[in-house]
Amino acid sequence: MNILMTLNQKYLKYMHIMLLSLCNEHQDEKLHIHLVSSDILASDLDKIKKTLNQNIEFTIYKYQNENLLQAKTTYRYPVDIYNRLYAIEYLPLNLERILYLDPDIIILKNLKDLYEMDFEDNYYIGATNVKKILTKINQIRNKADRSSYYLNTGVLLINLKKLRTCQDLNELTEYIIKNTPRLILPDQDVLQGLYGDKVKLISHLTYNLSDRAITKHNLSMTKEFLIDETWVDNHAYILHFYGKNKPWKDNYKGILKPYYQKYDYIYHMKTSEK
Hints:
Keywords: Glycosyltransferase, Metal-binding, Transferase. This protein is an alpha/beta fold and 274 residues long.
């Protein structure tokens, strides 16, 4: 299973915690982590690898797109966030698919079914956590096709084989630079604007569950079930702590913190061993 991640030193610890959960749910599988980073070193990954007890391989890519120096970035959204959209430019040609994961994630179940899912000729498979009205607003704002979806790009299965024949990287760069002033969640806006009509949807409750999504769901007048810890245990595959509500912060709100704390505890146990 090939996993793509793009981050800097600031999120190294959280990537480590995510990998502990990933390895725990894939103990009989070989994992290859393709990491795009300008400041994470091979020595950092060697330390992580020693704690995983897993058949896992790392490859670091020092990819940097100088054309994006004008692109919109913030403290929360550095230029690295665009790298997942340029995956065909630096990943090996023998890879036909790869699963991108943000570091602020906890894996609860085996992801083989997701990883092997049929693309049905689409570029990406992912989840949306916005309703129809906001989807329409985003379509207008991003000048996107009327059939386009707005994906949360923290969990993204990427069809490398299809993109190599269809994606125009110059068009991608031009779109980013031209639309920089109005980008809000930059990589997500760009993906909808250019490729939002070439995506296959999966359930955000199953594969991209957050406490924000739980709150919205449980407050819905049309819900068929309540999401509680038992539902999470039985149905959720990926927990995603996107936004400012992070489980390592004291002011975190929601029911998902214990799932993070489990692997945070393992992380501290593993990294304190001599």
